[in-house]
Every structure is written in structure tokens, then in C-alpha cells.
Amino acid sequence: MSEHGGNIIGISQQYGLSADALIDFSANINPLGPPESVKTLIKNSLADIEKYPDVEYRYLHQVIAKAHKCDETKVIAGNGATELIYAIVRYLKPKRALLLTPGFAEYRRALQQIGTKIIDYPLTEETGFQPDLRLLDMLAAIKPDCLFIATPNNPTGLMPDNQVIQALVEYCEKNGISLIVDESFIDFLPDNRGLTPQISTTKHLYILRSMTKFFAIPGLRLGYLISGNTTVIAEMKNRREPWSINAFAAKVGEILFEEHDYIAATHQWLKSQQHYLWNQLSAFSELTIWPPSANFLFFRCERPEIDLWHALLKHQLLIRHCKNYAGLDNRYYRIAVLSEWENQRLITAMQKIFSYS
Predict the structure, then answer these.
(1) Quick one: residue 134, left, alpha or beta (phi over 0 = left, psi -120 to 50 = alpha)?
(2) Could you give all domains of the chain from N- to C-terminal order, each with its CATH number?
(3) According to a count of CB atoms within 10 Å of the terminal CB, is the N or C end of the chain lower?
(4) Residues 210-226: pLDDT tens digits?
């Protein structure tokens, strides 16, 4: 079974279901769909299929840099944030890395490919699945070359305390530890700019961003990395495989930051539906829910005899099991916040599964 959500084709084939009939709660994609301007742009740019994209993606980098008020020498775009996870690991070649668990699987996979020694730092229920300042003690004890942290975290959806994040930035900068912060879901938090304002004063901070989730373009794939270490960015650009971003994705990336109405509509949808799902799921005594900060919720089923993943699949609803995340077991799940009618359908199915009706 896939380590990621969104595996509609694989699941439908394995269980003999119609892929079109499944409602996918397993992938954290904006249910508003891509902005209309994206569809229009692609339709009007079909002739570009006959041309190579700019191998240096100059204009795309300029647009990203302008959006974050920095120089383009501090930005590298990629075929999704995942490409850049592998690229930064290949460049840094860390001998020892600290990973917070549970966490996104591709950090570990990228590090394993180059033989990095990985030390896990478990996030447990006792600490609310959140890192605290004791993480600094761990860094001091093991002296890693790099640390990955996601803000908000995937799969828990929790946003670490700002004091902890700032302490990490300062400690890693002082001690020459590469701090790779994955902000793939931070656009869903309207009042949080993340750490990008700090790249002007840091050399060991690397910030990953994804445009795939927020702007609903997983089929195009687009992400970027920002760092104040322009030497690293330049070398990553020199070493990368050419044309890793297709022409349509590059063109789309050039307009997304101007989609102010779409961005506002997304935040409005999330405020409403995140609140709805949180309240509805919290009403089930069979579930323990952690408060969400992004567009997905993390919970545990307290009825071990119920396989919630398979039970919901019978209702043609696909959720994300979390048993393959380090530190979690088959009681833990993650669901995306979708449209009102889809969220209502999920709650109705759960009521039937738990015999509420």
C-alpha cells in the first residue's frame, strides 16, 4: 500500500472499486480546485507543449522572490517540494540527521539513499505530539549535521510553538546545523508568514514550500526552496537535472501569487469546514482528535476492533491510515478537510459505522 495519500488508482484496482466514485480524504488538496486563471492559462498555452521550458526558470524564480521580498539568488523552484527534499540532502550530504517522528516519509527516504545515520526524536501523546525545548538538549547531545521539521507537521497537522521554532533557528545557526523547515501547508494558516523573513539573517536555514496543496495542482507539481545561503542555492541549480519543471507548471507558478480572491476564498472555506469537522468528529466518544491548524485532522480510533480505513472504504470514502508513520500504529488516521457535502458524507458514514443510527 502506498506511503502517501491520493493513491486512488491503486486502491480502486486493489479493491475492485470505481476510482471516480471514491471521495478522497487521504490527500490534503484544496477542494476548491485550481483557480480559473490556471485552467485558462493552460488552455491558452497549449502551443508551449512544442517548446522546452527555460532551463533556468528565470521568470518563475523572479516571481517567487518578489512574493517573499528577497533576491532570486535565494530561491530554487522544483517539481514539487519533494524534488527539493532530495536535492538539498544530496547537496548537504549529512552524516547524521535528526528526524522528528511521526513525520513525512520522504525525509527519511532521501537521507537513507545517501547513507545518512538517522536518529529519531519521538513526538508522543504525552507531549501532545509537539516538540518542546528539550529538543535542543537532544541536538546538543547527538550533534547532528541536519534537522528536518515540518510546520505544520504531517500527519498530525499541529503547529509547533513559535518559541520552540525560534530557539531552533538560533541554535542551528549558532552551531552550523542545517535546519530544513518544511512549510508545505503553512499557506493554509492566513496569519502565519513562516520563517521566510529570517533568510536575510541566516545561512543554515532552508525553507521548503509547496504550491501543490493550496492551489490544488498535484498533477502539475510545483514547489520551491528558499535560503539565505546563496552559494548552496546556486550549486543546487547547477547540479540539478535540466527541465525538471514542465512548461505548464512553470507558467502557472508565475501567476499564483496574484490570486488574492482565491486565497481569501480558501481561507474562508477552511475556517468554516475545519471548524465543522472538528466539532463533528469531537462528538464521537470513539475518537480522540488533535486540534488542527491546517487543512487536515489527525485522530485515533479508540475502538481497536474497528478497522476504520476499510469500514469507510465500503462507503466509498478513502482516508489516510497512519500505521506506516514511525511511532504510530493502526489506530491513527488523517483526513483532509473537503467540501461541505463531502465532509457531511464522512460524518454520516462514521455515524453508521459507530452505530449512531
Answers:
(1) alpha
(2) 8-34+260-356 (3.90.1150.10), 36-258 (3.40.640.10)
(3) C
(4) 999 999 999 999 999 99
